Amino acid sequence: MANRPLSPHLQIWKWGPNMAVSILHRATGDGLALVGLAVMVWWLGALASGPEAYATFLAIATSPVGWVFMVGLSWAFFSHLCSGLRHFVLDIGAGYELKTNNAWSIVSPLVGIALTVGFWAIVLLR
C-alpha cells in the first residue's frame, strides 16, 4: 500500500471562532430538530386533546425545568438563525477575509444571546 497523505483533522487545524460557531450552528440545529420538534408536537397534541391535557402541558412548561427548556430552545433558535445568516453571506461569496470572518463568528452568537434576552423580556413584561 502506497504512503498516501492523511486528511487534515482537528489536531492539525488551529481553532478559531469560525470553527466554533460552525459547530454551534450544527448543535443548535440538531437541538431544534430533536427537542424543539418534540416540544412542539407535545404542545399541539395537548392543544388538540382538550383543556385538561393543555393544563398539564402548561404546568410542566412553566415549571423551572420547563423554563430551562423554553429559554434554551429560543436561544438555540436565535443562535441558529444568526449563524445561518452568517453562512448565507459566506455562500454568496462575501465575508471570507480572515478578520471579517472571525469578527462575524464572534458577533453571531452574541446577537443570538441578545435576541433571546430581548424576546424573553418582551414575553415576560407584557
Automatic annotation (TrEMBL):
Membrane-spanning ranges: 23-45, 57-78, 103-125
Keyword terms: Heme, Iron, Membrane, Metal-binding, Transmembrane, Transmembrane helix
Keyword Membrane: yes
Cellular localisation: Membrane
Domain of life: Bacteria
InterPro entries the UniProt entry points to: SQR/QFR_C/D (IPR034804), Succ_DH_cyt_bsu_CS (IPR018495), Succ_DH_cytb556 (IPR014314), SuccDH_FuR_B_TM-su (IPR000701)
Annotated function: Membrane-anchoring subunit of succinate dehydrogenase (SDH).
Sequence similarity: Belongs to the cytochrome b560 family.
Subunit annotation: Part of an enzyme complex containing four subunits: a flavoprotein, an iron-sulfur protein, plus two membrane-anchoring proteins, SdhC and SdhD. The complex can form homotrimers.
Descriptive protein name: Succinate dehydrogenase cytochrome b556 subunit
Source species of the chain: Tsuneonella flava
